[in-house]
């Protein structure tokens, strides 16, 4: 089945230690998104890639970066995680502006 | 600007009860509307969608009708099960706005008791 895969499902890091979360998709969608979700709040869009074009949300902290080396993969880098960055991180994909399909998420714990 | 308003939760029902979760929206263009479900510790799963007025989305016994006159997209199910316990998010996407951003409601937690 075509799907969105996120690894790892759980990630523990230390305060200030860089961490990378990964997302891959077999849907061949051209748009990939990263969301942050806290405590069953609505997901908050951090940024998205339209093909290779990176689009940052205005209120996304500089601490968050992303890479998309090819159509299938996208990475979220947190350069210096703080306690407030502990959250569920969701990757999603879509074809153009159509329906978004989400991965299972990575839960990040910052110690 | 665009916005989505969902009824506050939690909603607690007995098994086989009728479910309604209200969702209303404000949009300047012609949005598509979605319901997503999130089970504990999981990502969002698309439950159903509607792309134009009077469309009815349905899946797994859930239904929602895109009502332009009342700007609503209420989620209904005739007989809920314990396994339906989850958080439900209403969302809109306005493709005419030039943005790829979903506007989510705040989510409604549903708890179904056996």
Helix and strand composition category of chain B: mainly beta
| Helix and strand run of chain A | EEEEEEEEEEE
User: What do the pLDDT scores of chain A average to?
Assistant: 94
Terminal CA distance of chain A reads 36 Å
So what's the oligomer here? heterodimer
Question: What does the model show?
Answer:
The complex is a heterodimer of chains A (111) and B (114). Chain A is mainly β and 111 residues long. Chain A has strands at residues 4-7, 10-13, 19-25, 31-37, 44-50, 53-56, 64-67, 73-78, 87-94, 101-102, 106-110. In chain A, strands 2, 4, 5, 6, 9, 10 and 11 form a seven-stranded mixed β-sheet that branches. In chain A, strands 1-3-8-7 form a four-stranded antiparallel β-sheet, with no helix packed on it. Chain B has 114 residues and is an all-beta fold. Helices cover 0% and strands 50% of the residues of chain B. In chain B, strands 2, 5, 6, 10, 11 and 12 form a six-stranded mixed β-sheet that branches. Chain B has a four-stranded antiparallel β-sheet with strand order 3-9-8-7, with no helix packed on it. The interface between A and B is medium-sized, with 24 and 23 residues.
């Amino acid at each position: 089945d075509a799907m969105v895969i996120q690894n790892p499902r759980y990630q523990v890091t230390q305060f200030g230690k860089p961490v990378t979360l990964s997302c891959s998709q077999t849907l061949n969608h051209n748009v990939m998104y990263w969301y942050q979700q806290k405590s069953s709040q609505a997901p908050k869009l951090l940024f998205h890639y339209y093909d290779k074009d990176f689009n940052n949300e205005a209120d996304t902290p500089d601490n968050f970066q992303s890479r998309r080396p090819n159509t299938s993969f996208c990475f979220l880098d947190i350069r210096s995680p703080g306690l407030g960055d502990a959250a569920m991180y969701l990757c999603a994909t879509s074809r153009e502006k159509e329906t978004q399909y989400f991965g299972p998420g990575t839960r990040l714990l910052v110690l | 600007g665009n916005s989505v308003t969902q009824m506050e939760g939690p909603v607690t029902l007995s098994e086989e009860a009728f479910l309604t979760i209200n969702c209303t929206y404000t949009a300047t263009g012609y949005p598509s509307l979605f319901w997503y479900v999130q089970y504990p510790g999981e990502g969002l799963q698309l439950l159903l969608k509607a792309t134009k007025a009077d469309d009815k989305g349905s899946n797994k016994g859930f239904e929602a009708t895109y009502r332009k006159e009342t700007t609503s997209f209420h989620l209904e199910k005739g007989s809920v099960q314990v396994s339906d316990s989850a958080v439900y998010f209403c969302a809109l996407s306005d493709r005419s706005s030039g943005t790829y951003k979903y506007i989510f409601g705040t989510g409604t937690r549903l708890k179904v008791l056996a």
